Amino acid sequence: MADSPIDQLDHFRQDAALSHGELWLRYFELGGMSTGLQLEAYLYGALEPSRHDHDVIAHALNERFVELGGNHPVPYDEDGRVGHRRREDREETDTGRPPAETV
Residue 99 carries which DSSP code? Predict the structure, then answer.
């Protein structure tokens, strides 16, 4: 089974040769507000980061790859397309029914 985009964040972290603590510090410096434990949970797919948190993590990793002389391999979550299902999609999948109409 292929890794989900969320699970890939930890693979990128390993490729960037960053410890969890080093990535968290970079993430925090860029405005990330999650704890180190929450960040690890995002990396392992135990928690789903918000779009903002995903993009801050991606940016921290991409900055590291640039420092190493590389490119920007970590995709950003533009328009919610990377690893995140829309709330409506989650509700339909989780309940097996289409979501209720909102007024």
Answer: P
The CA distance from 11 to 9, in Å, is 5
21 occurs within a structural domain: yes
Residue 103 lies in a domain: no
In a domain, 40, yes or no: yes
Cα angle 64, 67, 70 (rounded to 5 degrees) comes to: 85
Q: What is the pLDDT of residues 5-63, one digit of tens each?
A: 557 899 999 999 999 999 999 999 999 999 999 999 999 999 999 999 999 999 999 99
End-to-end CA distance of the chain: 39
- Residue 95 structure tokens: 């309940």
User: Within a domain: residue 74?
Assistant: yes
Q: How far apart are CA 74 and CA 5, in angstroms?
A: 10
Tokens in use for 100?
């209720």
Sequence-distant (≥ 6) Cβ neighbours of residue 41 within 8 angstroms: 47
pTM greater than 0.85? no
